[in-house]
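Why run this: before we spend reagent on co-expression, it is cheaper to look at a predicted model of the complex and decide which construct boundaries make sense. The entries below are exactly what would go into the expression plan.
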Amino acid sequence: MTKKGKMCDMSQVSTLPIDVNESSEPVGNTPIVQYTNISKSYGKTEILKDLDFKIYPGEKVAIIGPSGSGKTTLARMLMTLEKPSSGRIEVNGEQLWHREVNGKLLPADEKHIRKVRGDIGMVFQHYNLFPHMTILKNVTAALIHVAGIEKTEAEQRAIQMLKKVGLDHKLDVYPAQLSGGQQQRVAIARALVMKPKIMLFDEVTSALDPELVGEVLEVIREIAAEGEMAMLLITHEMDFARDIADRVVFMEGGKVVEEGPPNLLFTKPKHQRTKEFLSRFHSR
Amino acid sequence: MWDSNFAISIIPDLVDAMWVTLSATVSAFFVAAALGLVWTLCKRSSLKVLVIVVSSFVEFIRTTPLLVQLFFIFYVLPEFGISLSPFVAGVIGLGLHYSTYLSEVYRSGIESVPKGQWEAGKALNFTRPATWFRIILPQALPPVFPMLGNYFIVMFKETPLLSAITLVEMMQKAKIIGSSSFRYIEAFTIVGLLFLLLSYPASLLVRHLENKTSNRFNKAA
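The model came back. Tokens follow.
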């Protein structure tokens, strides 16, 4: 079948990404995140297949692709919400799921995972705010109970962050009293206040009413413009991906089909599958 | 048949015994509430041995009669050098037995907390204990308070069983009064009324609690 032929083609591209990314991958820089040979399957269903993937410090990477392509699993593994079936993930030069003892890789314990995980932050599709805490408490909780920062200082930082997302007038209300867009902005502030080196955005606007998408994207744009933090955005918002990403990755069937700078990937996709996927979006 | 003067004369004695019943209920409930939570947390441990041991123990307690357990604690343990007063044995027996039911109540509360809350805890790098005590339990417990309250009332009504291990609570007191005066109708009627007098307001309170918790975080903006 012709489809099978294409699949071979794709895997070749994913192992030799250099020709497409020369412009976006800073040469000689060490990646902040590196997936090596990552596979994930649930029973017989393979979600990711021998995936190699890197993110560089400060880089903004957008992942696009049809649902079931494995893009969310990719992010969830980095947040340690899902365990890879095989392969390794390194964050900031340290193994995430393993620890090295005398050159051997052993499964990591909770303590090690927590140490490495501290560099990663995540914003979820369904916000996942703590419903029993006020907005201010949502943002200060991790500062106080994870970072061990004293309460008044934590509150100052939280208020500053809530100001950034335009919600510093809602400190004492509960999440249920806010709109979806506002809740998502709080969730962004909550993740951001921990100063992660890389932040994951997992379809953060997919659960929002259309009229609320803009305010959330605007906040993410502002954060991206500040620059220093690496961002991995899983999104269906093509215009948004084009605007803020340094590199766009198209995934399908658990593999990276094609990647490159947005102006190239969106205007001159090399692969038939990418073209088909993008044309479906344009025609909508 | 009914002798009102006699009935009035025995009320002070029965009210005294009522305090024993109440303090046994409250103490046993605290034992049950604490142990139940311990069982629930152990059952969710990543340590497989702990899960199996606790699960079997809980299943054993739940599927054997409370009366047998009470007899065991009060009459058998002394043979192993553990002699307990009727009150302490009763509190431990009743508390242990109901801890297995309360454990199920906690489980239902914990399972009703969305998975996303655990994930948010991980994403913010909370330790496991902090995730439990700061994020999960504060959401899991309030919705089950009414169920816990119901079990409190059930336990209250089970306390007459403690008369079997010689605890002089209301029921035992009524039996003593009955056997010494050969008048049973007044004593047992008053005991029944005292139970009603205490259970009914308690069940109203539980219902009130139910209404209150059901709309806890959904105050309209």
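The domain at 4-214 of chain B is CATH 1.10.3720.10 (MetI-like fold). The helical segments of chain B are 4-43, 48-62, 66-76, 86-111, 115-123, 128-158, 170-181, 185-214. Bring this page to Monday's planning discussion.
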